[in-house]
Amino acid sequence: MKGLKKLALASTAALPMVLGACASTGSIPSASAPITQTEAQQGAEAHPQLLQEFGGAMTGSTAQYVESVGKGIAVQSGLGNARDSFTVSLLNSSVNNAFAIPGGYVYTTRQLVGLMNNEAELAGVLGHEVAHVAARHSQRRQAKAQQNSILGAVGAILSGVLLGNSGIGQQLGQTFLQGTQLLTLKFSRSQELEADTLGIQYLNKAGYDPRAMATVLQSLAAQNSLDASIQGRNATIPEWASTHPDPAGRVREALQKAQAVGTGGVTNRDTFLTRIDGLMYGDDPKQGVIEGQRFIHPDLGFSFSAPNGFYMINGTTAVSINGQSGQAQLSLAPYNGNMDSYIRSVFQKLGGQNTQLAPQTIERTTVNGLPAAYGSARVNNGNSQVDVTVFAYEFANNRAYHFVAITPAGQAGTFNSMYQSMRRISSSEAASVVPRRIDVVTVGSSDTVSSLARRMAYTNAQEQRFRVLNGLSSSDRVTPGQKVKIVVRSR
């Protein structure tokens, strides 16, 4: 969640090639076919919007390293002028993700790079995304999207949980995808496996250990499970919210494919660890940070807490709050100094052009010294009903922020504690928010997993976090001279 200008809900309608629904695979076009002018134009148009939505492109030596590895593996795809035709970006995002769009645009987040343990794994992830480009998977999704836009599809899926299948369900479902970084839906399973296969072949041709595809998938599966455990939710991510679903189910298959092409090749572990030493890990304070149940934004000067049993996802344009009994999102809209019109405009946007959605009443209040107002509306959807609540706050300098919440009818009070927790923070509180970074250290003669884990800059699950970060199983030990990653606070 960035500064004021970045907080507006992003319009995703202009990104059909990224957001298109999954399509089944057909025959793969020739891998030697160069990227077409049309594909290059599509990618160039979407690229700036994606950078904005996913925190922007990072610069510096680590970004240059990622770009070099990505272009190197792209050459193995056989696409004409592969090195020059691909744009590889390291994104300033705390979500574990990588994706690609037509025109040779490949992306990976710094969080996913931080989870990796060697250069071969980095090449494997980027090669997997290059394979999506080479096999024209996005174009097949785009063709399907022209029949059924992804936002409508996702709204319909969300409506199956809370909203029914009406138009209002689609509009409200759309709201909870914007600004959460859950923007690129998965390819079909067959397309993902096809990209795994091609990526493994690229690794082998480039001289890397092809087993790296399996090990990075294993780390991603372990991180998935750890995140779910810490957040108190089921480890299974809803398919609509995952670009690369169920990585654990693909680990064994990727390993079998790797063994079929050969088990030799380099990993370049030490080089990789040297290049990512100091990389930011977790939330960027400039986008706000999540600490347990609390969200704090030092630049914008506010904080709030999610209810117990809910977990948050911090996007570059909004914060989403998710749980079994409802969903909410904090964002902003244009504000002219009138809270009533502000809230009504949010409801109008939620309802869309074809639906009249308005609060029954708008109530004024004060929350921790902040002028606030709120309104609710009950929406009928066949056999079910939901309550939609907008709770807005007025800040200085003509700024306003608001929560939008959806709960089953009669349960609008689910988020009351969150609404009442919104407050300004002091300058000292803001100054105390510092980023976490990866620190690559050499294991000493007296070091153990436990002693190293105690240096992790977290108050919970230190050893589990350390093991997942370093690709260690529950029984693995560390040895003197070995390089490992820990996460520390940096000032």
UniProtKB/TrEMBL annotation:
Location of the LysM domain: 439-486
Cofactor field: Zn(2+)
GO cellular component assignments: membrane
A GO BP annotation: proteolysis involved in protein catabolic process
One Gene Ontology MF term: metal ion binding
Gene3D superfamilies noted in UniProt: LysM domain, Metalloproteases ('zincins'), catalytic domain
Keyword presence, Zinc: yes
Pfam families linked: LysM, Peptidase_M48
ATP-binding among keywords: no
Keywords: Hydrolase, Metal-binding, Metalloprotease, Protease, Signal, Zinc
Record's signal peptide: 1-23
Top-rank taxon: Bacteria
Name this protein carries in UniProt: M48 family metalloprotease
Organism the protein comes from: Qipengyuania oceanensis
Organism placement in taxonomy: Bacteria, Pseudomonadati, Pseudomonadota, Alphaproteobacteria, Sphingomonadales
